[in-house]
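Subject: sequence -> structure tokens, single chain

Hey, anyone have a minute? Need the predicted structure for the following. Not urgent.
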Amino acid sequence: MTAPTYEEARARKVAAEAQIAELELAKVQGELVIAEDVVSAWSDTLSSLKAKIISIPSKAAPIVASEDSAGGCQKVLDELIREALEELSNYDPKIDAANTQGTPGTSEESDVGAEAASTPKRKRVGRPRKTAGLSK
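Reply:
Had a minute. Here:
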């Protein structure tokens, strides 16, 4: 096996840089997302689904207890399940495809309080200092 020549090594390097540039472009255009962001979004969706399904019995119990027919109970349960599924169908995890940091779970909700975290403006407060060395 022979060692690659300078021209071959340079061609491989240029090809790799071109592939990296194409991937970055696809990421900026929203055609490519970070796998960790997708996993995080699915995890959030499934957690929300689990919470909605688990909450159905506690929502349904008081309503169903007052029903005297099986049809009424079925209607109540059907409405609650459809309500939960409707809420989940409107669930929209925000995946920031332009995020170059690769931080999972970037969402609109996580920006709450971002204004408070901005750097403060450093201004002097109070009276101005006396200037030293300007005596008459």
